[in-house]
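Supplementary Text 2. Reproducibility record for the structural model of the 126-residue chain.

All settings were left at their defaults, and a single model was retained for analysis rather than an ensemble. We include the record here because the model underlies the residue-level annotations in Supplementary Table 4.
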Amino acid sequence: QVQLVESGGGLVQAGGSLRLSCAASGLTSSVYSMSWFRQAPGKEREFVAGIGWGWSGSSTTYADSVKGRFTISRDSAKNTLYLQMNSLNAEDTAVYYCAADRAGLGGITTRRYDYWGQGTQVTVSS
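Retained model, structure tokens:
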């Protein structure tokens, strides 16, 4: 059974940093494409960052809104996905979710993903 568990969220002042983690268990292959999404109150879940799309190993993709501020990475030995978030602002406030696509293709739409974590809250105070 696949399980994704996020951690590392919290309250931070604007301009600050946080590092989110997503511990994965039950994934039978290391070639899963994985991504981070976020959902703010009253808004749809949106793509933030992805890694390993299209069986590309460690290649990364970012939403324009976070490019240059956020960094996605993963430690295959630990089965853990990370999201380093710097220069946070109020618009980054949301619940952040990690997701895994067993087909290895990835993408920016939620329907591409088979497994989701429960989410971790990030709140940025201005």
